[in-house]
Structure formats: C-alpha cells, structure tokens
Amino acid sequence: ATEIKSTKQRSYSTIVDVQKAITKMLDGLLYAMDVWTTLGKLAPAGKYSATYDYDDSVIVDRSAQFTEDLRLVTTQIMSKVEFRMRNMREDEATARKMLDMATAETEEQAKMEQRMTPSEEI
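^ that's the sequence the OP posted. Answer follows.
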C-alpha cells in the first residue's frame, strides 16, 4: 500500500511539473505572437491574458469528488454555488444564474402541481 501511495505521489508530481512546463511554453509562444503581430501591425497593441485549466481527472477521481461534494451540500457544509463552480466548472456569476433558474423552475413546477391537485371539499 505504501508503494502504491508513493507511486501515485510521483505521478502527481510529474503531471504537475509537465503542466507547469506547458504553461511556461504557451506563455512564451503567446508573447512571441503578440510581439510579431504588433511589429507587423496585424493586430492592435494591447494587453492580453491567458488562463489555463488542466483537467486533473487522471489524478482525481471525479465521481468520488462529486459524491463527496454532494454530501457536503446536503449537510450544508458546502454552498450550492461552490458545488456548481467545482463540479460544473462555472464561474460564480454563472453558477448563481443557473441556481436562480433552477429555483424558478422548481417553484413553477410546484405551482402547476398545486393547480392540478383536486381540491378537497368539506
């Protein structure tokens, strides 16, 4: 068990190192492209930013993480917004918007079910 754990740790470290190297290489490439397009007047000069999101599914069990996060939401330890951000890969604004839409749909569904339920006569 100890050997498996250390092997996973080495694999994780290797993956992280590769991701850092790829990020550095891409940043260099973007910088070079920016310089050449500015010099050639192919694009207006200005700032740019790059973001990288490496899916760590090789080293993270997404199914287990989802189940654990769902448990945390159910026990009110994690917010629904945080849950959506982690598991649906949404930014905070999108997560809040989607939760508002889901709440509105649930409320509308409840109203429709109330209308469809025959009223009891006394």
